[in-house]
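Recall the central idea of this unit: under ordinary conditions, the amino acid sequence of a chain determines the structure it adopts. In this exercise we apply that idea directly, starting from the sequence alone.
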Amino acid sequence: MRFALLLVAAAMAHAQTARNPDAVLQQARARLQAAAQNLERYVCIETLDRSYYERAVAGDPRRLEFTDRVRLEVTVSHGRELHAWPGATRFDSRDVDELIRDGPVSTGAFGAYLASVFDRAGVETRYNGERSADGKTVFEYGYHVPLAASRFEIKVAAEWRPAAYEGEFRLDPQSLELQSLTVRTVQLPSDAAFAAAGATLDYQRVRIGDSDVLLPRRSLLDIALKSGRETRNSIAFSNCREYQAESEVVFDAPPETGSATAPRAGRGRVALSIGLPVTLALDAPIDTATAAAGDPVAATVLKPVRRAGSDEELIPAGAIVRGRIRRVEHHVLPAPYFLVAWSFNRVEAHGALSPFVARSEPDAELAKELGANLAIRDTGIWFWGVGAFLFPTGKSHTVIPAGFESKWFTLATGGR
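Accordingly, the structure predicted from this sequence is:
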């Protein structure tokens, strides 16, 4: 009987502790700090769907101008998110805006927000009260990260500047799990390009190997530009995996290679002069409903490539060129069309892997008719080694079929 009474008393004490907002926050913070540090063991595919809205007119709802999609791999190292193109063998030490040159980009959703809010000194928190979410009661807390404690940075021109931010997060008082987190910028630099930015993240446990890992189920970033235009980034994580013992993470920015199993470079390298015509056919279809900038792309050389005025065969028919998709855009206003661009940087020929840089001239008349901007920036300059293709249609998606033929000409004797 005494033992039973002690159990009841212990259970009552636990229930009271679980309902105490300070105790819940203290226990949950320790779990979230461990969760943020644990993310350094994992890599996920991060798919970024971006929507761009025209400036709203008084009394009229905002209208969608166009969308695009980008895909990267992401991990965390020492509280900082690192990115790489899908399938790459190394992570890039550059900031994400050095990889994605156009459109709004951000970091934090994968794990940096967890570390910044729950594992940083100087973060101010307050209990906002109980809330109802998905049929259960959760505790909501407000937080504020002052400028002095902030690692949140905004790029103004070519300079990164810190900014204060704040928001709310919700905890399950029983399981101590993080349910959601919001982030809002405050005290923006006066010369920032946008007026406000806010993110909303809903969390869930994801099974990776033998572990349950805390990741956002959904992440939305809304940005209001000073011009009146708005953008929304929707971020999803998939294909998560744990580092294997033989995996190597090297923090540099090497030239992209098609895959780890590609032929070795250096043996029998092909030296190409500028202006050689190349006819290519896609090896696999590109479906705009799922394709993203960053996805690998490959094409087959249909005709032998020869030096001008010579019978010497530099690239045989059947050789494979490899690269990546650079843009996948769906434009709605003022005219509906899809813009898909890709580039190549390697050719597999004669059992060797050689640099390959080429350009496909766009349809200038169609681009003018649609008002399409075909320029692509790379490393601070306009990038020419690309093919941009336009597909006018009022449909919600289009498929570029396998075997799609395009005409290219070489740009240089070496690769990027």
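The mean pLDDT is 84.
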